[in-house]
UniProtKB/TrEMBL annotation:
Protein name: AraC family transcriptional regulator
InterPro entries named among the record's database cross-references: ExsA-like_N, Homeodomain-like_sf, HTH_AraC, HTH_AraC-typ_CS, Tscrpt_reg_AraC-type_HTH
Keyword Transcription: yes
Keyword annotations from UniProtKB, A to Z: DNA-binding, Transcription, Transcription regulation
UniProt superkingdom: Bacteria
GO MF assignments: DNA-binding transcription factor activity; sequence-specific DNA binding
Organism encoding this protein: Paenibacillus sabinae T27
A Pfam family per the record: ExsA_N
Domain (HTH araC/xylS-type): residue spans on this chain: 183-281
Secretion signal, residue range per the UniProt entry: none
Length: 288
């Protein structure tokens, strides 16, 4: 298959009915947010992928990879570069505790726990072996439903061997435990960010005091709760402007904002255009 002739190509390989390897190849930029239940290893062959964890920003370019520790929430922005026809070509590997433990047992590695030494995000170059490994996976995405789960497991083991050989520090990061309570913070925030709730309400829903809630929230998102809520509401508003016919007023109130003028102001600060103009420009691009 001539991958360069494709403008958009996506696919995933599954293990235990869950997507564990995802492939993307296209020329469109994207922005968004996600909370990771599992470790994520993101490998960029071509393009630019930026991740923000609170006020910290990490950028990968061609032939680089990023490890994002599980149980944190991040913002992302991805796009191609002008000198490569704006092509964005990357793969994502979701590594849960089960697959990491299987690898440790299979490879004979003993877990090493680094107290208070969890690094949320790490960026480093890929070597020739990992680059060849990525190319070896691409044929599987032509007919992903025909790929046996046993083979997917073997390919994940192969990846982890390459990681262990090239960056044992990264392997140690995968072994570090994270409090399961972090998941409850993310679930509560996703379920309630568009509701008219206060920080005290969110702390109560999480079963924490306000001080403990703020501390645990900072560990997950590395940013103050109110700032995260506002940005999450704006991201949702942007999505609704692009994908629905709802009025700007309806979108304002449905995403938790209580004042249209304030909503328009903060939307423009974040995305460069007020909501109505953002939608108009988007429609013009679609019609072009």
């Amino acid at each position: 298959m001539n991958w360069k002739s494709l403008r958009i190509k996506k696919g995933s390989l599954k293990l235990d009915e869950m997507s564990v390897i995802e492939f993307c190849f296209y020329t469109q930029g994207r922005k968004g947010t996600f909370f990771l239940q599992d470790h994520l290893l993101l490998i960029v062959k071509t393009g630019v992928y930026t991740v923000r964890f609170g006020d910290q920003e990490y950028t990968m370019r061609s032939n680089e990879m990023m490890f994002i520790h599980k149980s944190i929430g991040v913002e992302y922005e991805k796009a191609g570069e002008p000198d490569s026809d704006y092509i964005l070509d990357y793969m994502m590997f979701f590594l849960n505790e089960k697959i990491v433990d299987e690898f440790l047992t299979f490879a004979g590695f003993k877990p090493i726990y680094l107290v208070n030494d969890v690094v949320p995000i790490t960026v480093f170059p890929i070597n020739d072996r990992i680059g060849s490994y990525i190319e070896s996976l691409k044929p599987y995405f032509e007919n992903p439903d025909e790929v046996k789960e046993g083979l997917v497991r073997v390919k994940l083991m192969e990846l982890l061997f390459h990681i262990a050989d090239s960056n044992d520090r990264l392997l140690h990061q995968m072994m570090q435990p994270i409090s399961k309570d972090r998941g409850s913070i993310a679930k509560i925030m996703e379920e309630n960010f568009s509701n008219p709730v206060s920080l005290n309400d969110l702390a109560y829903l999480s079963g924490r005091s306000l001080a403990t809630f703020k501390r645990d929230f900072q560990a997950v998102y590395n940013t103050p709760p109110l700032k995260w809520v506002r940005n999450r509401r704006l991201d949702k508003a942007k999505e609704l402007l692009a994908e629905t016919a709802l009025s700007v007023t309806d979108i304002c109130f449905s995403t938790g904002f209580e004042n249209i003028a304030h909503f328009s102001k903060v939307f423009k600060e974040r995305f460069g255009l007020p909501p109505s103009e953002f939608r108009r420009q988007l429609r013009l691009k679609e019609e072009a």
